[in-house]
Input
Amino acid sequence: MTIDAKDLLNSILSSLSRIDYIRPESIPNIDLYMDQITTFMDTQLAASKRHPDDKILTKTMINNYAKNNLLPPPVKKKYSKEHILMLIFIYYFKSILSINDIESILNPLAKRFFNAEGEFNLTTVYEEVFSLERDEVKNLMKDITKKFNTSSTTFADAPEEDQDFLHTFSFICMLSFDVFVKRMLIEKLIDETKEMEKEADDAQRAAEKKASEEKKASEKKTSGKKSNE
Output
């Protein structure tokens, strides 16, 4: 590979090394209005922008997330710390998953942990998941370097003036295949999660129906006894 290509790899690895997540302690403990939310997210996730004028979140995006049941509604037009955590999850998921898939995975999360009382809540989940990020970045850097070096050995018989382009194309294809396979796996896991959630909801409804019928039968029996007295 040419020195320019090696510089490209170093640039990619350098960018990966700067990847970080929004730490819970950085999130304000007071509820925020929409404008404050968009400003906060834009500032905190600026390093992930492709172009300087890209928007991390807009008012329209947030409203659409609420309409599509990805985000619990604000309270008196204000968003809590947990709303911001949900928006961070949405931000990372939306580049690879459909709205329906994001809803399928985030709805159970919100149902269980949004505004949950006790020590285990949405912040706990967020901290645990993103604490894995640093080790994962290290693994990614090793994998990307391996793919880059492999791509540099392709098309050895191609015209010299085309080799740089073909090496880059090979590198892109290898990365794309990796994303393709992982997306298929994610979608399979989401489908299985949806089925488990459906079974759990069906079981809960059946239990509630049975309890209601038993209550009515008991009340009817009690009422009949009183009538005979």
